[in-house]
Amino acid sequence: MFVPGCVEGLEVRAIPLAEATDGHFELLLSRARQPLTAPVAQVGHTAARLYYVLNGEIEFDTGERGVQTLIPGDCVYLPAGRVGGGLYRATDSVLLEFWARQPPADGLGGEHTVSVVRAAETGYTAHSLRPWLRRRDLGVAEASRGWLHVGLSVCAQPYPGPAGPHWHSFALHVMMIVQGFCQIEYAHLGAVTLIPGDCVYQPAGVEHDVVMRSDDCEILEIIAPHPD
């Protein structure tokens, strides 16, 4: 549910991710109920930030990459310490914001970089693990030196059915349904049906199986591989 935010005309929906991850990660959706023009804070945040446009048009200052006009499917990654933020938002624009405490650069092979990836310039390619899926990389893995992996998956062919119970060892695994629906069977919860806007946080080691997925299902995934 969206509730009034701290900016007039802006509604927010907080996903309870911070509590589940001891404050290391935060996730929220914001929706503009009227055209918004807001100044960019001229300070660098202590967290790395990911912005993904779900609906409408947003004018965004990315700092070193300049002002960018973003539309649905566009994605911006800002490392910790970088200045950036929204300048203008059209009515009913919806923005996903993901914040994460960034580890030291010396453990990641170098400094993180600002990334701007546009839907019109990045197509879907074969999924490395699931032949019935196609995946669109949002450029965050390269910009963050492999610290975060963010992408969208869509069905390339009808879902073949359950692959069998399995689990992951990721430090973080978040999934949000962008369109369509899917059903996931959890050993401790049973079957959970997810529709657009629904979000799942799967801790490492949780057994699950995707038992159903609509042909138009599109899922946004944010993954932090285990540091080991």
Low-confidence stretches: none
Tally of domains = 2
Sheet with most strands: strand arrangement: 1-2-3-10-5-8-11
Shape: globular
The number of helical segments is 2
Give the DSSP E fraction (strand runs of 2 or more residues): over 45%
Q: Could you explain the architecture of this structure?
A:
With about 230 residues, the protein is mainly beta. It folds into two domains: about 120 residues, Jelly Rolls (Sandwich), CATH 2.60.120.10; about 100 residues, Jelly Rolls, CATH 2.60.120.10. Helices cover about 5% and strands about 45% of the residues. It contains two helices and 20 strands. The strands form four sheets. It has a seven-stranded antiparallel sheet with strand order 1-2-3-10-5-8-11, with no helix packed on it. It has a six-stranded antiparallel sheet with strand order 12-13-14-20-15-18. Strand 6 and strand 7 form a beta hairpin. The radius of gyration is 17 Å and the shape is globular. The termini are far apart. The mean pLDDT is about 90.
